[in-house]
Amino acid sequence: MSLSILVNTSACVGAGQCALVAGEVFEQDDDGIVVLLEESPGGSQESSVRRAASLCPARAIELRG
Amino acid sequence: MAETRSVVVVGAGIAGLATSENLRARGFVGTITLVGEESHLPYNRPPLSKQLLIDGWSPERLLLADAGRLDSLGITYLPGVKATGLDVASRRVRLGAEWVGYGALVIATGLSPRQVPGIPGEEHVRVLRTLDDGIGLADALRRAERVMVLGGGILACELASATRKLGLPTTLVARHTEVGPRSLGSAVTERTHRLLLDHDVQFLTGRELASVGRTSTVLSDGTRVDADVVVAAIGAVPNTSWLARSGLDVEDGILCDHRGMASPDVYAVGDVARWRSPVTGIARRLESQSSAIDQAEIVAGAVLGDPMPQRSYPLFWTELFGNRITAIGECVAAESVVAIAGDLDADRFVAEYTVSGRRTGLVGWNMPREFRQARTLALTEQTKGTVAA
Prior knowledge:
Strand content of chain A: 15-25%
Shape of chain A: globular
Number of helices of chain A: 2
Number of domains of chain A: 1
Strand order of the largest sheet of chain B: 3-2-1-7-20-19
Oligomer: heterodimer
CATH class of chain A: Alpha Beta
Strand content of chain B: 25-35%
Helix content of chain B: 10-25%
Radius of gyration of chain A: 10 Å
Distance between the termini of chain B: 34 Å
């Protein structure tokens, strides 16, 4: 089952938690705002992506699937 | 240890909700009852002083979970219910007038804003802690002509930043002459102070409020200040009065060990919790959204007998007049503050705080990516047991 990711850039506060724990899926732009590198990452990324979503202090990452 | 079959979580902010979610994510199949004193669904507090006031976000955008999500997680949500007592010996918590049994109890009752001490007109002074406070303040600001913010900490700075962004003349009244996030040390505090001055926030420091009227106030030195909205941000105190007879140590928050346990099968998370550091032995409260999230993860593991080894460092962020400030670790007691990216005198930098040559904290000023990269380095070193940020 593949995971699909939605990021809410207007809620993002640029804390960088997501890029810290799942750097292959999330990056930050110059303002710190989340940039999604991979909308449907493979299964090997699932646990780090779930952790990124749960650590986001702005709750700006939504996972489906 | 007997398997826990029912968990009651008292407090439905981020700490309580995240604990509930983590329990399910780790496969807990027993009942979870999430008790919230407010009537709303669980919501996110940091935007109350930012997007809700400045960007006109609707309250719905602050919600952390809708009823469908709580349902699908099998979380029984009890809004508008206040915890009123705890009996650890019989493992029962009092919700309203009813005693309810628990297998494990997680306390996440947060803080209440400190009120201005009894002065004439105190009923005109607003505070900002709950969604209802925020909705009321946003509405008042739409009709306001001049604003007074009381307090000198980070929330006061955020409020002044918001009201100036809305174009409202703003006076900041504080007892301290130093205004800013004092936990980040004097260099950042001074910069923040300057930032507010540059954006025409009027400062009246070293004074207190003496009386408040509908359109003007009087300070302790007799100064009269016109303001039709007065909002106090003078600190907040742990919501522990309901635990007075519980036997728990609730002096400045609920005293817990390094995994959040206050007493067997009783845990505390978030702003109300005072966890003991396994390294320093010092117990203190961390008023930080990210610490609440970390603690939720650790306590969910502890409840399930599945300990999480990681330690949490308070991560802080704010945005003032478009400047994005991030910080982690311990900054206030630093012996040395050095820029490791950018320049301390410029608009962008990452500052490293050290004590005896060891990194204790980091502050990013408009350099969020570099701040995170510096953290990555720190975390790598942390696994070798040398660094604490």
